[in-house]
Automatic annotation (TrEMBL):
Highest taxon listed in the record's lineage: Eukaryota
Record's protein name: Endonuclease/reverse transcript
Organism: Pristionchus entomophagus
Protein backbone atom coordinates (compact mmCIF):
# COMPACT_ATOMS: atom_id res chain seq x y z
CA UNK A 1 0.00 0.00 0.00
CA UNK A 2 2.17 2.82 -1.31
CA UNK A 3 -0.24 5.60 -0.29
CA UNK A 4 -0.22 4.52 3.34
CA UNK A 5 3.58 4.25 3.35
CA UNK A 6 3.84 7.72 1.86
CA UNK A 7 1.54 9.18 4.51
CA UNK A 8 3.39 7.51 7.39
CA UNK A 9 6.77 8.81 6.21
CA UNK A 10 5.49 12.28 5.28
CA UNK A 11 3.92 13.03 8.67
CA UNK A 12 7.16 12.13 10.45
CA UNK A 13 9.33 15.23 11.07
CA UNK A 14 12.70 13.92 9.91
CA UNK A 15 14.45 17.26 10.43
CA UNK A 16 13.84 17.19 14.17
CA UNK A 17 14.34 13.46 14.42
CA UNK A 18 17.78 13.41 12.77
CA UNK A 19 19.07 16.87 13.71
CA UNK A 20 21.28 15.75 16.63
CA UNK A 21 22.26 12.26 15.40
CA UNK A 22 25.47 11.02 13.86
CA UNK A 23 25.32 9.19 10.52
CA UNK A 24 25.41 5.82 12.33
CA UNK A 25 22.60 6.80 14.70
CA UNK A 26 20.57 8.28 11.84
CA UNK A 27 20.88 5.03 9.88
CA UNK A 28 19.78 2.99 12.88
CA UNK A 29 16.85 5.32 13.51
CA UNK A 30 15.71 5.09 9.90
CA UNK A 31 16.08 1.30 9.79
CA UNK A 32 14.07 0.83 12.99
CA UNK A 33 11.36 3.08 11.56
CA UNK A 34 11.23 1.38 8.15
CA UNK A 35 11.28 -2.27 9.20
CA UNK A 36 7.89 -2.39 10.99
CA UNK A 37 6.43 -0.13 8.28
CA UNK A 38 7.43 -2.61 5.60
CA UNK A 39 6.12 -5.57 7.61
CA UNK A 40 2.74 -3.84 7.93
CA UNK A 41 2.15 -2.61 4.38
CA UNK A 42 4.37 -4.68 2.03
CA UNK A 43 3.55 -8.34 1.25
CA UNK A 44 6.46 -10.72 0.98
CA UNK A 45 7.10 -13.59 -1.41
CA UNK A 46 9.98 -16.00 -1.68
CA UNK A 47 11.55 -15.96 -5.16
CA UNK A 48 12.81 -19.16 -6.75
CA UNK A 49 15.93 -17.70 -8.32
CA UNK A 50 17.68 -14.34 -8.33
CA UNK A 51 17.59 -14.16 -12.13
CA UNK A 52 14.16 -12.55 -12.06
CA UNK A 53 15.49 -9.28 -10.60
CA UNK A 54 15.81 -6.18 -12.84
CA UNK A 55 19.22 -5.25 -14.23
CA UNK A 56 19.50 -1.99 -12.33
CA UNK A 57 19.61 -3.81 -8.98
CA UNK A 58 23.39 -3.91 -9.27
CA UNK A 59 23.45 -0.15 -8.74
CA UNK A 60 21.31 -0.49 -5.64
CA UNK A 61 23.68 -3.11 -4.16
CA UNK A 62 26.57 -0.65 -4.57
CA UNK A 63 24.61 1.92 -2.63
CA UNK A 64 23.88 -0.61 0.10
CA UNK A 65 27.59 -1.29 0.56
CA UNK A 66 28.04 2.41 1.32
CA UNK A 67 25.32 2.20 3.98
CA UNK A 68 27.05 -0.82 5.52
CA UNK A 69 30.41 1.00 5.58
CA UNK A 70 28.82 3.95 7.39
CA UNK A 71 27.40 1.72 10.15
CA UNK A 72 29.28 -1.61 10.13
CA UNK A 73 28.58 -2.47 13.80
CA UNK A 74 24.93 -1.44 13.88
CA UNK A 75 22.35 -4.05 14.90
CA UNK A 76 19.86 -2.61 12.44
CA UNK A 77 22.27 -3.39 9.62
CA UNK A 78 22.15 -7.07 10.48
CA UNK A 79 18.38 -7.02 10.88
CA UNK A 80 18.07 -5.77 7.32
CA UNK A 81 20.44 -8.44 5.96
CA UNK A 82 18.46 -11.19 4.23
CA UNK A 83 18.87 -14.86 5.01
CA UNK A 84 21.20 -16.86 2.80
CA UNK A 85 18.54 -19.44 1.98
CA UNK A 86 15.82 -17.15 0.68
CA UNK A 87 15.61 -13.56 -0.47
CA UNK A 88 12.30 -11.90 0.44
CA UNK A 89 11.24 -9.19 -1.97
CA UNK A 90 8.64 -6.47 -2.49
CA UNK A 91 5.70 -7.49 -4.64
CA UNK A 92 4.70 -4.87 -7.18
CA UNK A 93 1.11 -4.27 -8.31
CA UNK A 94 1.66 -6.57 -11.30
CA UNK A 95 3.04 -9.37 -9.09
CA UNK A 96 6.72 -9.04 -10.02
CA UNK A 97 9.39 -9.08 -7.34
CA UNK A 98 11.40 -5.87 -7.21
CA UNK A 99 13.81 -5.67 -4.26
CA UNK A 100 15.27 -7.63 -1.39
CA UNK A 101 14.48 -6.74 2.18
CA UNK A 102 17.81 -4.95 2.55
CA UNK A 103 17.20 -2.93 -0.60
CA UNK A 104 13.95 -1.56 0.79
CA UNK A 105 15.62 0.88 3.16
CA UNK A 106 17.82 2.36 0.45
CA UNK A 107 15.07 2.49 -2.18
CA UNK A 108 12.51 3.97 0.19
CA UNK A 109 14.99 6.57 1.41
CA UNK A 110 15.72 7.67 -2.14
CA UNK A 111 12.09 7.62 -3.23
CA UNK A 112 10.47 9.41 -0.31
CA UNK A 113 13.21 12.04 -0.03
CA UNK A 114 11.86 13.43 -3.32
CA UNK A 115 8.26 13.63 -2.14
CA UNK A 116 7.50 17.35 -1.79
CA UNK A 117 5.06 16.95 1.12
CA UNK A 118 5.59 19.37 4.05
CA UNK A 119 5.48 17.80 7.54
CA UNK A 120 1.91 17.84 8.82
CA UNK A 121 2.68 16.91 12.41
CA UNK A 122 5.63 16.18 14.62
CA UNK A 123 5.48 12.96 16.66
CA UNK A 124 8.70 13.93 18.43
CA UNK A 125 9.00 16.67 21.09
CA UNK A 126 10.38 20.01 19.97
CA UNK A 127 14.08 20.48 20.75
CA UNK A 128 15.37 22.85 23.39
CA UNK A 129 15.94 26.37 21.91
CA UNK A 130 19.50 26.27 23.18
CA UNK A 131 20.13 23.02 21.32
CA UNK A 132 21.71 23.62 17.90
CA UNK A 133 19.51 22.54 15.02
CA UNK A 134 19.18 23.08 11.29
CA UNK A 135 18.58 26.70 10.28
CA UNK A 136 15.27 26.19 8.47
CA UNK A 137 12.05 28.24 8.55
CA UNK A 138 9.04 26.86 10.38
CA UNK A 139 6.62 28.66 8.03
CA UNK A 140 5.20 26.81 5.05
CA UNK A 141 5.61 28.04 1.49
CA UNK A 142 1.88 28.62 1.18
CA UNK A 143 1.85 30.94 4.19
CA UNK A 144 4.77 32.98 2.80
CA UNK A 145 3.19 33.34 -0.64
CA UNK A 146 -0.16 34.28 0.92
CA UNK A 147 1.44 36.95 3.11
CA UNK A 148 3.41 38.41 0.20
CA UNK A 149 0.34 38.52 -2.05
CA UNK A 150 -1.44 40.59 0.60
CA UNK A 151 1.45 43.04 0.93
CA UNK A 152 1.98 43.75 -2.77
CA UNK A 153 -1.06 46.02 -3.43
CA UNK A 154 -0.30 48.14 -0.35
CA UNK A 155 3.30 48.97 -1.23
CA UNK A 156 2.97 49.21 -5.01
CA UNK A 157 3.40 52.94 -5.42
CA UNK A 158 5.88 53.10 -8.27
CA UNK A 159 4.81 53.28 -11.92
CA UNK A 160 7.16 50.53 -13.05
CA UNK A 161 6.03 47.96 -10.44
CA UNK A 162 9.44 47.65 -8.79
CA UNK A 163 8.01 46.24 -5.52
CA UNK A 164 6.02 43.64 -7.45
CA UNK A 165 9.15 42.68 -9.36
CA UNK A 166 11.16 42.20 -6.18
CA UNK A 167 8.53 40.07 -4.46
CA UNK A 168 7.86 38.02 -7.58
CA UNK A 169 11.55 37.17 -7.72
CA UNK A 170 11.45 36.20 -4.06
CA UNK A 171 8.40 33.99 -4.57
CA UNK A 172 10.09 32.40 -7.59
CA UNK A 173 13.19 31.62 -5.53
CA UNK A 174 11.00 29.92 -2.90
CA UNK A 175 9.02 27.89 -5.44
CA UNK A 176 12.15 26.67 -7.25
CA UNK A 177 14.17 26.17 -4.05
CA UNK A 178 16.82 28.67 -5.12
CA UNK A 179 18.62 31.04 -2.77
CA UNK A 180 19.23 34.69 -3.60
CA UNK A 181 22.95 35.53 -3.70
CA UNK A 182 23.60 38.17 -1.03
CA UNK A 183 26.98 39.35 -2.49
CA UNK A 184 25.22 40.21 -5.76
CA UNK A 185 22.58 42.35 -4.00
CA UNK A 186 23.00 46.00 -3.09
CA UNK A 187 20.92 48.64 -1.35
CA UNK A 188 20.25 51.97 -3.03
CA UNK A 189 18.64 54.72 -0.93
CA UNK A 190 16.68 57.17 -3.07
CA UNK A 191 15.94 60.70 -1.91
CA UNK A 192 17.56 63.23 0.37
CA UNK A 193 16.61 61.46 3.61
CA UNK A 194 19.68 59.87 5.13
CA UNK A 195 19.00 56.51 6.73
CA UNK A 196 21.21 54.14 8.69
CA UNK A 197 19.01 51.07 8.26
CA UNK A 198 20.75 47.81 7.49
CA UNK A 199 19.26 45.03 5.40
CA UNK A 200 20.26 41.43 6.01
CA UNK A 201 19.82 38.60 3.54
CA UNK A 202 20.69 35.00 4.48
CA UNK A 203 22.70 36.28 7.44
CA UNK A 204 24.80 38.70 5.34
CA UNK A 205 24.50 42.48 5.49
CA UNK A 206 23.68 43.92 2.06
CA UNK A 207 26.16 46.62 1.15
CA UNK A 208 24.63 50.06 0.45
CA UNK A 209 25.91 51.90 -2.62
CA UNK A 210 25.37 55.29 -4.18
CA UNK A 211 25.46 53.96 -7.76
CA UNK A 212 24.20 50.59 -8.94
CA UNK A 213 23.94 49.04 -12.39
CA UNK A 214 20.73 47.38 -13.45
CA UNK A 215 19.71 46.20 -16.96
CA UNK A 216 22.79 47.97 -18.31
CA UNK A 217 22.03 51.40 -16.80
CA UNK A 218 23.81 53.07 -13.89
CA UNK A 219 21.32 54.47 -11.37
CA UNK A 220 22.49 56.93 -8.71
CA UNK A 221 20.84 57.75 -5.40
CA UNK A 222 19.72 61.15 -6.76
CA UNK A 223 18.43 59.62 -10.03
CA UNK A 224 20.83 61.69 -12.12
CA UNK A 225 22.39 59.82 -15.03
CA UNK A 226 25.66 61.75 -15.30
CA UNK A 227 27.71 58.71 -14.28
CA UNK A 228 25.93 56.52 -16.83
CA UNK A 229 26.51 59.04 -19.62
CA UNK A 230 30.19 59.35 -18.72
CA UNK A 231 30.59 55.57 -18.79
CA UNK A 232 28.93 54.97 -22.16
CA UNK A 233 30.70 57.94 -23.75
CA UNK A 234 34.05 56.63 -22.50
CA UNK A 235 33.32 53.12 -23.77
CA UNK A 236 32.09 54.36 -27.17
CA UNK A 237 35.16 56.55 -27.61
CA UNK A 238 37.52 53.67 -26.81
CA UNK A 239 35.68 51.47 -29.31
CA UNK A 240 36.07 54.19 -31.96
CA UNK A 241 39.81 54.20 -31.37
CA UNK A 242 39.97 50.41 -31.53
CA UNK A 243 37.96 50.27 -34.74
CA UNK A 244 40.02 52.92 -36.50
CA UNK A 245 43.24 51.13 -35.51
CA UNK A 246 41.90 47.76 -36.68
CA UNK A 247 40.55 48.83 -40.08
CA UNK A 248 43.01 49.55 -42.87
CA UNK A 249 40.39 50.85 -45.26
CA UNK A 250 40.01 54.50 -46.15
CA UNK A 251 36.45 54.15 -47.42
CA UNK A 252 34.06 56.36 -45.40
CA UNK A 253 31.08 54.11 -46.17
CA UNK A 254 32.70 51.04 -44.55
CA UNK A 255 33.79 52.92 -41.44
CA UNK A 256 30.37 54.58 -41.06
CA UNK A 257 28.61 51.23 -41.43
CA UNK A 258 30.79 49.78 -38.66
CA UNK A 259 30.05 52.85 -36.54
CA UNK A 260 26.30 52.38 -36.93
CA UNK A 261 26.53 48.68 -36.04
CA UNK A 262 29.00 48.62 -33.15
CA UNK A 263 29.28 52.09 -31.61
CA UNK A 264 26.07 54.08 -32.02
CA UNK A 265 23.88 51.44 -30.29
CA UNK A 266 25.96 51.96 -27.13
CA UNK A 267 24.98 55.63 -27.12
CA UNK A 268 21.29 54.96 -27.79
CA UNK A 269 20.42 52.03 -25.53
CA UNK A 270 17.36 52.80 -23.32
CA UNK A 271 17.53 56.54 -24.04
CA UNK A 272 13.90 57.02 -22.97
CA UNK A 273 15.15 56.48 -19.39
CA UNK A 274 18.28 58.62 -19.25
CA UNK A 275 17.95 61.14 -22.13
CA UNK A 276 19.72 64.21 -20.68
CA UNK A 277 18.40 67.76 -20.74
CA UNK A 278 21.61 69.41 -19.48
CA UNK A 279 23.69 71.09 -22.16
CA UNK A 280 26.98 69.67 -20.89
CA UNK A 281 25.82 66.06 -20.95
CA UNK A 282 24.19 66.50 -24.36
CA UNK A 283 27.43 67.85 -25.82
CA UNK A 284 29.45 65.07 -24.17
CA UNK A 285 27.41 62.43 -25.98
CA UNK A 286 27.53 64.35 -29.24
CA UNK A 287 31.31 64.76 -29.00
CA UNK A 288 31.76 61.02 -29.70
CA UNK A 289 30.10 61.26 -33.11
CA UNK A 290 31.65 64.67 -33.78
CA UNK A 291 35.17 63.35 -33.20
CA UNK A 292 34.56 60.14 -35.15
CA UNK A 293 33.27 61.92 -38.27
CA UNK A 294 36.24 64.31 -38.13
CA UNK A 295 38.71 61.42 -38.02
CA UNK A 296 36.91 59.60 -40.85
CA UNK A 297 37.10 62.77 -42.95
CA UNK A 298 40.83 63.15 -42.25
CA UNK A 299 41.54 59.47 -42.91
CA UNK A 300 39.74 59.57 -46.26
CA UNK A 301 41.86 62.50 -47.42
CA UNK A 302 38.88 64.85 -47.73
CA UNK A 303 39.06 68.56 -46.91
CA UNK A 304 37.92 69.75 -43.52
CA UNK A 305 34.20 70.41 -43.04
CA UNK A 306 32.24 71.64 -40.05
CA UNK A 307 30.16 69.19 -38.05
CA UNK A 308 26.93 70.31 -39.73
CA UNK A 309 28.29 69.68 -43.22
CA UNK A 310 29.92 66.41 -42.15
CA UNK A 311 26.51 65.11 -41.06
CA UNK A 312 25.02 66.06 -44.44
CA UNK A 313 27.89 64.48 -46.37
CA UNK A 314 27.74 61.21 -44.40
CA UNK A 315 23.91 61.18 -44.20
CA UNK A 316 23.85 61.11 -40.40
CA UNK A 317 21.55 62.69 -37.82
CA UNK A 318 22.67 64.21 -34.56
CA UNK A 319 22.42 61.93 -31.55
CA UNK A 320 20.20 64.53 -29.91
CA UNK A 321 17.73 64.27 -32.78
CA UNK A 322 17.71 60.48 -32.61
CA UNK A 323 17.07 60.48 -28.85
CA UNK A 324 14.21 62.96 -29.28
CA UNK A 325 12.82 60.75 -32.03
CA UNK A 326 12.88 57.76 -29.70
CA UNK A 327 10.96 59.79 -27.10
CA UNK A 328 8.28 60.68 -29.64
CA UNK A 329 8.06 57.05 -30.79
CA UNK A 330 7.68 55.75 -27.25
CA UNK A 331 5.05 58.34 -26.36
CA UNK A 332 3.03 57.38 -29.44
CA UNK A 333 3.29 53.67 -28.58
CA UNK A 334 2.24 54.37 -24.99
CA UNK A 335 -0.77 56.50 -25.90
CA UNK A 336 -2.00 54.02 -28.50
CA UNK A 337 -1.46 50.97 -26.26
CA UNK A 338 1.48 49.33 -28.04
CA UNK A 339 3.37 49.20 -24.71
CA UNK A 340 1.66 48.33 -21.45
CA UNK A 341 2.65 49.98 -18.17
CA UNK A 342 1.10 52.22 -15.54
CA UNK A 343 1.08 55.73 -17.05
CA UNK A 344 -0.79 57.47 -14.22
CA UNK A 345 2.45 58.84 -12.73
CA UNK A 346 3.87 59.85 -16.12
CA UNK A 347 1.06 61.60 -17.96
CA UNK A 348 -2.69 61.71 -18.41
CA UNK A 349 -4.81 62.26 -21.49
CA UNK A 350 -6.07 65.85 -21.16
CA UNK A 351 -8.02 67.09 -24.20
CA UNK A 352 -8.92 70.75 -24.32
CA UNK A 353 -12.32 71.77 -23.04
CA UNK A 354 -12.84 73.97 -26.09
CA UNK A 355 -12.14 72.81 -29.61
CA UNK A 356 -9.33 74.36 -31.64
CA UNK A 357 -8.36 73.69 -35.22
CA UNK A 358 -4.78 72.76 -34.27
CA UNK A 359 -5.70 70.66 -31.21
CA UNK A 360 -6.26 66.93 -31.10
CA UNK A 361 -8.04 64.66 -28.63
CA UNK A 362 -4.84 62.84 -27.55
CA UNK A 363 -3.21 65.79 -25.81
CA UNK A 364 -1.28 64.78 -22.68
CA UNK A 365 -0.63 66.58 -19.44
CA UNK A 366 1.68 65.95 -16.48
CA UNK A 367 0.02 64.86 -13.21
CA UNK A 368 2.40 67.02 -11.15
CA UNK A 369 4.88 69.86 -11.47
CA UNK A 370 8.32 68.42 -12.21
CA UNK A 371 11.58 70.14 -11.16
CA UNK A 372 13.63 71.55 -13.98
CA UNK A 373 16.53 69.20 -13.17
CA UNK A 374 14.38 66.09 -13.74
CA UNK A 375 12.70 64.87 -16.89
CA UNK A 376 10.76 61.94 -18.26
CA UNK A 377 9.89 60.80 -21.73
CA UNK A 378 6.50 62.52 -21.43
CA UNK A 379 7.86 65.81 -20.07
CA UNK A 380 10.51 66.05 -22.79
CA UNK A 381 8.00 65.41 -25.59
CA UNK A 382 4.97 67.13 -24.08
CA UNK A 383 5.09 70.39 -26.02
CA UNK A 384 5.97 68.80 -29.34
CA UNK A 385 3.34 66.07 -28.99
CA UNK A 386 0.56 68.51 -28.17
CA UNK A 387 1.53 70.70 -31.13
CA UNK A 388 1.25 67.87 -33.68
CA UNK A 389 -1.68 68.03 -36.10
CA UNK A 390 -4.53 65.61 -35.53
CA UNK A 391 -3.84 63.62 -38.76
CA UNK A 392 -0.28 62.92 -37.54
CA UNK A 393 -1.11 61.53 -34.08
CA UNK A 394 -3.88 59.33 -35.54
CA UNK A 395 -1.68 57.85 -38.29
CA UNK A 396 -0.76 54.15 -38.30
CA UNK A 397 2.41 53.34 -36.47
CA UNK A 398 4.76 53.00 -39.47
CA UNK A 399 3.39 56.11 -41.18
CA UNK A 400 3.77 58.10 -37.98
CA UNK A 401 7.41 57.11 -37.59
CA UNK A 402 8.23 57.97 -41.20
CA UNK A 403 6.58 61.37 -40.81
CA UNK A 404 8.46 62.17 -37.61
CA UNK A 405 11.80 61.21 -39.18
CA UNK A 406 11.20 63.40 -42.24
CA UNK A 407 10.05 66.42 -40.22
CA UNK A 408 12.73 67.53 -37.73
CA UNK A 409 10.53 70.35 -36.41
CA UNK A 410 8.17 67.71 -35.03
CA UNK A 411 10.97 66.19 -32.94
CA UNK A 412 13.46 68.81 -31.71
CA UNK A 413 12.23 72.28 -30.93
CA UNK A 414 15.59 73.94 -30.25
CA UNK A 415 18.91 72.13 -30.40
CA UNK A 416 21.25 72.33 -27.40
CA UNK A 417 24.34 70.81 -29.01
CA UNK A 418 27.43 72.73 -30.09
CA UNK A 419 27.67 72.48 -33.87
Amino acid sequence: NWDSINIEIAIHDWTIALSNKTPTEAYCYFSNFINPLLDAFVPLKTPKTISGYPKYLGLLHDRLKRFHNMAPNCDSTHSLRPASSSLPGIVDSNGSILLTNRDKASAFSRFFSKVQTPPMSSPLPLPNPSTPSFDIPFISIGQIVSAISQLVPKINGSPDNIPNLVYNKYKLSIAWNMTISAPKCTVLHLGRLKTSSQYILNGSIITPKKIVRDIGIFFSDNLHFEHHINQIAKKARSMCNLMLRSFLTTSPSIMLKAYKIYIRPLLESSTIIWNPTAIGLTNKLESVQREFTRRVLWRSGLPYLSYTYRLKRFHLETLEFRRATNDMFFLYDSVHGFVHFDTSNFYSISPLTRSLRSAHSLRVGLPYVMPSSFSTCASRSLTLWNSLPNPVVTMPRISYRNTIKKTPTYTVGSSRIKL
